[in-house]
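Worked problem 6 (solution included).
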Amino acid sequence: MSSRTAEILEKFSGCTIGVIGDMIADVYVYGRPERLSREAPVVIIQWESEETVPGGAANTMANLLALGATVYPVSVVGDDPAGRDLMGAFGSMGRFHTEGVIVRKDYNTIMKTRVFAGDVHTAKQQVVRVDRGRPGVSKEAWDKIRAYIRVADEEVDAWVVADYGYGLLGNLARMDLGEIAKKKPVVVDSRHHLGAYGGVTIATPNETEAAALSGMPVLPFLDDKTVGDAAGALVTKLNLQAALITRGNKGMVLAERGIAEPFFIPISGSDDIVDVSGAGDTVSSTIALALAAGANFREAAALANFAAGVVVMKSGTAPCHYDELVDVTGAGGKE
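Solution. The predicted structure is:
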């Protein structure tokens, strides 16, 4: 990779990024299948171990920290074990400012519990996922979030929105982000409400999300031209500077305002993907950090593609670390 890539990566540690979104506790339960139950036609799984890792917006934060950034989180967690686990994962990190995380007794921390089963000498496979937590944040929390965004905006170089559809952001806060995007990058990854984020800098939907909003055919897209047109349609419809559609093992496509031809990025690394969990968080966080470090959209998208190629080869929700990104881009030695 070029010396330009190394130059961008070297600036990561000097960047401060704000993250607004739904912090999720990703719980992984591992076990061994033993026998069929007499109670129902299901397999009995003998518990072996479990772990809780940051998911959703919390995974976005973890990626930014792993890449060397300072992070200002804006979110809500419950005063419950899952919320304490999430905050504990970040609490000892000096580059993580917790003032914007509201802890409430009337809120249940969002949890996604995945159960994996397999014998000793085989790879464990996911057999079920159980989600806990319902959409809904009080107006009081909304008001606090909006107020803190204004305060933190004085400190950050860019923002990431990780909207998983749990009602964290009200319309006024979304409008504020459109105004903020006039002076600094605002990257939005929204599963269900992307259409409400008009005027932000760049959106990073997957193919399904892009199809739903752009009016293009539902999956699968017929060809590269169709998905490229969808990206361009998003730029126009949402008044974006750019749109990056992630396409799994087909790579990514970037459309930019004022540039007629889309930019196609082939998948980084092997297309034999291990686990896509959290890859979207890696993409949005890397783009925000790269833009804050002075990258243009194509440079930022290329780095995000490399970072995503790292995490999809890991089992479970996991971030891309700075050294891993340096290695995969070949930026360890300048040309």
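Discussion: The domain at 3-25+54-111+134-329 is CATH 3.40.1190.20 (UDP-N-acetylmuramoyl-L-alanine:D-glutamate ligase).
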